[in-house]
Amino acid sequence: MILHPALIMLGAGLLIPFVPNTLRKVFLILVPVVVLFASYQLQYGQELTVSFINNMELIYLKVDRLSWIFIFILAIVSLTSNLYSYHVTSGVQLSAQFIYVASSMGVVLAGDWLTLIFFWEVMAVSSTFLIWVSNNEEAKKAGFRYLLVHFVGGNLLLAGIFIKVSQGQLYITELTANMDLASILILAGVAINAAIFPLHAWLPDAYPKSTITGSVFMSCLTTKVAVYCLIRVFPGLEILIWGGVIMCLVAVTYAMLANDLRVILSFHIISQVGYMVAAAGLGSDLALDGSVAHAFSHILYKSLLFMGAGAIIYSTGYSKLTDLGGLYKLIPGVAILYFIGSLAISGVPYLNGFTSKALILSASSIQQYPAVELLLYLATIGTLISTCLKVVFYTFTGEPKKDYKIKKVPVHMYAAMTITAALCFIYGVFPDLLYNRLPFEVNYVPYTFDHVISKIQLFLAATFMFILFIRTMEPKDVYLVDADWFYRKPFVYAVQYTSDMVVTIQESLGSVWLKGINSTVPFFRNPLRKLNFIFNDMEIPDNYDADHYRVSIGMIMTVVLIVFVVSFLHLNI
Amino acid sequence: MEEKKLILTFSVLGFLSILTEIIVPVDYHPYYWWHAFIGFDYIFGAIGGVILIVVAKWILFPIVKRDKNIYEGSNEE
C-alpha cells in the first residue's frame, strides 16, 4: 500500500484546528513522523492516478529519483520545523504550516500539470496565512503583497498549463527544447517563485514579517519547490545560468547592507537559490545533481539559521543588528548552533554546504563556464562575510546594545536546532549518504586536499578583509529600496493616475454632453415655434403643449359618426 | 589593539595555508590555470572581499538607502 505523504499532511492540516489543544501537540510530532515514514518508503517508479473530466487520468503521485530526494528532505524539515514550533497553539497557524508542507509535497509528487497547479496555488495561499498570523499591520500589508505577487506567478503558470493541456500535453515533461509561448509562461510563473532577479523582492519583503516559526517553514519550501520545477522542466536552459549568477551576486551584496537578521537570511535564500538555478541551467548530470544536493543542504542549514534567528528574536524581542550584541554570554547555545549553520551556508569543509556547492562549481568548470565558476565563488565570499562574520560579530560578540530581558529559549527549540545542526554535520562528513540518492549516478569526491585547502584559504582571506573593513561593515538602520519599489511606488501612482484620468475623462465628457443637451433642448421644446410663419396669427407657447392644438372629443366623435353614417348609407345603396 | 591582533593572526594563518599548499604534494585536476595556482584562493578571497565590500557599501548603499517610511501614505493597500 502506498501512503501519500502530501495527502496525510493535508488531512492533518484540515483537521488540526478542530482538535483539542493537548491533542494538537501529539499531532505536531506524530503527523510529521508518519509523513517521514511514508516518504522514506516510497519506491522509484510508483504511481497513483485518478480519473478526471474529459477522460483525463491525473497522476497525483509519481516517484522517481528526483522527486524522492525532494520529498525526503521536505519530510525531514517538516519534522524539525514542527518540533521547533511545538509551543505554537494557534490552530490557524498550525493548519497553515501543515497545509503549506502538504502542498509543497503535492507539487513535487505531481505527475501532471493540473495536479501541479492545484497544489501550487494552495501553497501560495497557505504560506500567506503564515505571514498574516503575525497579526500586525505590517504583516497584513506584506501578506497581501506576497499573495498578489504569487497570484500573478500562479496565473502565468496557469495560462501556460492551460495552453499545454489544451494541446493534449497533460503530463509534466521537460520543456527546454520546446520554448513556445506556453513554456515561457510556465517559466515565468516558476521564476517568480524561485525569486529570480528582478522578480525576487517579494521574498525579503514577506519572510521577515512572518512569525518566527512561520519563517522557518517559508525559508525551506516555496523557492526550493520552484528549483525542483526548474530541474524537472527546464534543465539546461542557458538563461538560467546567468539568472542564477546575477541572483547570487545581487543578493549577497544586499545582504551585506541589511540590518535585520531575517532580512539578511532572506537575501541569502536568494543567493543560495541562485547556485541551484545556475546549476539547473548548466544541465549536465553533475550540475543537476549539484542543484538537487544544494537544495537538500540548503533546506537544512537555512532552516537552522532561521531557527537561530527566531530564537534570538524570541529571547530578546529584537531582530536588528543595531539593537543586538553580546548575546554569546546570554544565549550561548543559540550562538553555537547559529554559528554552525552560518559555517554550513558558507561552505566550510565537513559541513553539508561544502559537499553540495562543490558539485556546482566543478560542473561549471567542466562545462567550460569559467566566468560562472569565478562569480559563484565570489558570491561564496559574500555569504561568509554577511551571514557568518557580520551577523556573528554584531549579534553575539561585543556588549549588549539594549537592556534585554532575556526570555528562556524552550527546550524543543534547542532540540530542533540541534537535530538540524547534527544533520548538517552528518551530510557534510558522509556526503555519500546524499550522493547515492541523487537523480544521476555521479562519482564525485569532494574531500580532496586541493578542494579543502582552497576553501580554507578563501575563508581566511575573507575573514582578514572583514576585520580590516570592520568599521565600514557597521550596520546602519535604514531601509534598502529593492525591485518591489516598482510595484509599491510608481505602480501605485500609475493605478491612481489612471483611475483619476478615467474619472476626469468621464466627467469632462459628461459636462460636454450636458452642455450639448442644454443648448439643443430649446429647439425641441416646441418645434411649431419654428413654423410660426404658418401659424403667424396663433399664439404659440414656448413649451410644446399637445392640448393646445387638440380638438375637442365631441368634435372627433361627430366626425366619426358622420363617417360611419355615410359609409353605412353607401353600403346599403 | 584586538583588531591588530586578529589581523596579524589571520595574516599568519593565511601565510601558513599557502605554505602548506607549497609543501604538501597536491594532485591537481586543473580545468583552468587558477586551479593549480598556489595561493590563488587566498588572493581571490582578499580581492573578492574588497570588491564586494566596496561595491556594497560605497556604490550600492548610497543608491538604495531610503527613509524607513518610504512607503507610508502611498495608499498601496
How is this structure best described in words?
The complex is a heterodimer of chains A (about 575) and B (about 80). Chain A has helices at about 5-15, 20-40, 65-85, 90-110, 115-130, 135-165, 180-195, 200-205, 210-220, 220-235, 240-255, 260-280, 285-315, 325-330, 330-345, 350-365, 370-395, 410-430, 430-435, 450-470, 485-490, 490-525, 545-550, 555-570; strands at about 45-50, 55-60, 480. Chain A is an all-alpha fold. In chain A, strands 1-2 form a two-stranded antiparallel sheet. The mean pLDDT of chain A is about 90. Chain B has about 80 residues and is mainly alpha-helical. Chain B has one domain. Chain B is built from 2 helices and 1 strand, in the order H-H-E. Chain B has helices at about 1-25, 40-65, and one strand at about 65. Chain B is elongated, with a radius of gyration of 21 Å. The model of chain B has no long low-confidence stretch (mean pLDDT about 85). At the A-B interface, helix 6, helix 11, helix 17, helix 20 and strand 3 of A face helix 1, helix 2 and strand 1 of B.
Query: What's the count of strands of chain A?
Result: 3
Using only C-alpha atoms, the radius of gyration of chain B works out to 21 Å
Mean pLDDT of chain A: 92
Summarize the helix and strand pattern of chain A as letters: HHEEHHHHHHHHHHHHHHHHHHEHHHH
Largest sheet of chain B: none
Low-confidence stretches of chain B: none
Determine the structural class of chain B based on helices, strands and strand pairing: mainly alpha
Average pLDDT across residues of chain B?
Answer: 85
Distance between the termini of chain B: 52 Å
Distance between the termini of chain A: 106 Å
* Proportion in β-strands of chain A: under 5%
Hey, roughly how much beta strand do the residues of chain B contain?
Answer: under 5%
Shape of chain A: elongated
